[in-house]
Structure formats: structure tokens, C-alpha cells
Specification:
Blueprint (H helix, E strand, L loop, with lengths): L1 E7 L15 E4 L12 H7 L5 E4 L10 E3 L4 E3 L14 E2 L3 E4 L13 E3 L2 E2 L3 E3 L14 E4 L2 E3 L5 E3 L5 E7 L2 E4 L9 E3 L5 E7 L2 E4 L4 E2 L7 E7 L2 E4 L7 E2 L1 E2 L10 E2 L1 E4 L2 E3 L1 E2 L4 E2 L2 E3 L2 E3 L16 E2 L4 E2 L8 H5 L48 E7 L10 E8 L3
Parallel strand pairs: 2-3, 3-5, 4-7, 5-8, 6-9, 7-10, 8-11, 9-12, 10-13, 11-14, 12-15, 13-16, 14-17, 15-18, 16-19, 17-20, 18-21, 19-23, 20-25, 21-26, 22-27, 24-28, 25-29, 26-30, 29-31, 30-32
Antiparallel strand pairs: 1-34, 33-34
Length: 395
């Protein structure tokens, strides 16, 4: 914890900038919200390349936005921030991140999105923009929630994409179509260097749609994630969707899956020549699938566990497909404990400060103000208001 002292003239929203060379723009769509802007789009339009936009918690949903040719850090309070009167920034509108005739100094590449709740799609590249299209690269999506019909994360509509880090998000998809929800890779483009780590996927039919081409992805890593299905019986649901629901072609090759837990789900369908290392599969309420590392020329990298109870604290709820981002997904004991290839538990990481830690993932990395003292409550004409603030760092 660190004590910070500020000299403030207006009684407005206090925010500590993450980067001294960039501006912080604030958004609140409530009456008398006190922010600089009432819509995300207005803040995006006003922002400069490299700025931060903080979307405050609100009792109303925000509209979507279009970001073109600007690198921005767009952040909200988190999925379930732990503080008094906690609220969320929920976006119920399509969000398009586009490079339209972008240059090195005017591009969305390098942007980051954290602590937001999306009820519609977050799309990198767009089908309908002027000035040409290009891939959006070097993207980080962290501590966000994607929820409901239409809340997909769509990558590569406008061109080749590379270097995406997708960490500590909660994805909940109920739609039955194989290519209508989830993380989607579209069209005939090339995708390189994607890391999916410490995420929770709860889905009805498919979690990730890898697109219509089977040989356009390299260095796709799925590490320390939890995949489970919504309530239901019958066969385990495929993690990876095939185009139009066809089965099993094409088979997407050369994925790397390590330290994941799969409950009532099938990671082996629709992929081939992919490596499984230290994963755990469990089928408490569905029919077991074949071992995924034994089919489609997949590779057994060792230490995989098949139809074994991972013994999560919330195991009963996960078995039943419960939808609750705040459940305790940690391993309590048993074969998944300390059994990952990196010495941690199989499944979600619950590390120490500075490390990936699902316990911290429900809130953004924003400092939380714990006390605020006005040091000179009596002011003369032209005097500055002196305020002392104590803030707690968020890991």
C-alpha cells in the first residue's frame, strides 16, 4: 500500500494515470456521473494514440463503439470487483477494432482491453469499413467477461493477425450453432502466436470456432484453462467447432494444450496433430469420449489424466454447469494438485502477487482508494485544495 498526495482544484473523478505521457479519459453514462464523456464512442473519438479510457461502473448498459487507427487501453472495473457498492461496465453493442489504411503511427495494434463485460461481439477487423482493411496485431484481452447470445470474440475478419494474449477471462456461450458464438477465427487469413491462458469457458455446444481453413494457425497455446459445459446429459461437447457443424473436417492441426481441465467437454474433436501435455478430462454427467491424444494423429506429451475427478472446491457446481464467475475454481486436493507441467495445479492458476491468479482476475488492475482526507478544508480565494489519498494496489 502506498500513500499518494495530490493537489486538486475541481471536485471531479480522481484517477491515477497509468502512463504519464498519455491522457486518461473517463466515461459514465449515468445522470451526473461526473466523467468527461457519457458514451464510449465519444471518448474514443476524442482520444489520442496511446491514451487510456476508463469506463466507470454504471447501472445502465453502455452502447458499443468503433475504434479505428488508434492504440488505446480501454479498461473497466472488472467482472466482479471486490469493494463496497461494486459495479460493472457492461457493453451491450457491437465493438469494432479496425485498421483502415493504418500506418505505423496510426493503428489499433498494441491495444488492450481489461475489466469489461461484453454482451455483444468484440471484433478485430470489420467487414464494412472504408479505406481498406488490415489485420490488428499485438492485442491483450484480460479480466473481461463475454456473455450470452452474440457475445463472441471475433478475430481476423479484416486480415492476418498475430500476437494475441487472452488471459483471465470468463466466456459464457449458450448458442447452439457451431460458428455463432465463442472465440471465432474468420475467413482465409493467417493467425500466429495466440496464448489462451487462465480463462474459464462455459458453453452449450462449442467454445472456439477455428474457422474454415485447417492449416493457417501456428503457435496456438491453450494453457491452464477450465472448460465445462452447461447443464445437460448425453455426449461431451466439443471444445473446438467445425464449419457449419460438419464433423470432423477440417481438422485443425498443431495446437498445443497443456495443464487444462475439461469437464463434460471433448477437446479432441475437430483437431489433429496437436500436442496434449498434463491435461485432465472428467465426465461426471456425460458419456466419455476417446482419449483426445489417441485420435486424429494427436500427440500424447505425457502426464495426461483421463476421466479423473479434478476435485475443485466448486466441483459439484461445475459438474452441473453452474454459471457463476465468482465460484471457487481452485483445486482442493487430489491428482490435479501440483501436477501441471510447471509444478502448479492443473487448471486455473492461483499464483502469488504479480503472477496470474484467478482470485485477482475478477477486478481490474486499478488502485482502490481506501481513505481520502482533505487537509485544508477552509480555503481562501484562489487557494488550492490539498487532499491526501491512500490507495491499495490491485494485483
Amino acid at each position: 500500500m502506498k500513500t499518494l498526495q495530490f493537489l486538486l482544484v475541481p471536485f471531479g473523478f480522481l484517477f491515477v494515470a497509468f502512463a504519464t505521457r498519455a491522457d486518461v479519459l473517463t466515461v459514465n453514462n449515468m445522470p451526473n456521473g461526473g466523467a468527461q464523456y457519457t458514451t464510449i464512442q465519444a471518448a474514443v473519438n476524442a482520444a489520442k494514440h496511446g491514451d487510456t479510457i476508463y469506463i466507470q461502473a454504471s447501472g445502465k448498459n453502455y452502447d458499443g463503439f468503433r475504434q479505428e487507427n488508434k492504440r488505446l487501453y480501454i479498461v473497466g472495473p472488472g467482472m466482479a470487483p471486490e469493494k463496497d457498492n461494486a459495479g460493472r461496465a457492461v457493453i451491450n453493442g457491437q465493438c469494432h477494432i479496425d485498421n483502415a489504411g493504418a500506418t505505423a503511427d496510426a493503428t489499433c495494434s498494441g491495444s488492450a482491453y481489461e475489466g469489461l463485460v461484453f454482451l455483444r461481439s468484440l471484433q478485430f477487423g470489420s467487414r464494412n469499413i472504408s479505406g481498406g482493411r488490415g489485420g490488428v496485431n499485438n492485442i491483450r484481452i484480460a479480466r473481461c467477461e463475454f456473455r450470452g447470445t452474440g457475445a463472441d470474440l471475433e478475430i481476423g475478419v479484416g486480415g492476418d493477425c498475430s500476437n494475441y494474449i487472452i488471459q483471465e477471462n470468463f466466456f459464457f456461450y449458450e448458442h447452439a450453432a457451431s460458428n455463432s458464438n465463442g472465440i471465432k477465427f474468420a475467413y482465409n487469413y493467417v493467425f500466429n502466436n495466440f496464448l489462451f491462458q487462465n480463462n474459464v469457458f462455459l458453453f452449450k455446444e462449442f467454445a472456439i470456432y477455428l474457422g474454415p481453413v485447417d492449416n493457417n494457425k501456428t503457435n496456438f497455446i491453450f494453457d491452464h484453462n477450465l472448460f465445462y459445459r452447461t447443464a445437460g446429459s448425453g455426449g461431451a461437447k466439443p471444445v473446438f467447432g467445425a464449419p457449419g457443424g460438419t464433423n470432423p473436417n477440417p481438422a485443425h492441426a498443431n495446437l498445443m494444450l497443456s495443464n487444462n481441465i475439461f469437464v463434460n467437454t471433448d477437446p479432441g474433436a475437430h483437431i489433429a496433430q496437436s500436442t496434449f501435455n498434463s491435461n485432465l478430462l472428467y465426465f461426471p454427467t456425460s458419456t466419455a469420449t476417446p482419449e483426445p491424444w489417441s485420435i486424429n494423429s494427436n500427440i500424447d506429451g505425457g502426464n495426461n489424466l483421463f476421466d479423473v475427478d479434478p476435485q475443485l472446491y466448486a466441483q459439484a457446481e461445475v459438474n452441473d454447469g453452474k454459471d457463476d464467475v465468482a465460484m471457487n475454481f481452485a483445486v482442493s486436493a487430489g491428482p490435479a494438485k501440483d501436477a501441471a507441467s510447471d509444478g502448479a495445479d492443473i487448471g486455473l492458476l492461483f499464483g502469488g502477487p504479480g503472477a496470474l491468479n484467478w482470485e485477482n482476475a475478477l477486478a481490474s488492475r486499478l488502485p482502490i482508494i481506501t481513505t481520502m482526507n482533505i487537509l485544508n478544508p477552509t480555503l481562501g480565494m484562489g487557494d488550492e485544495l490539498n487532499v491526501e489519498i491512500t490507495a491499495a494496489k490491485q494485483d
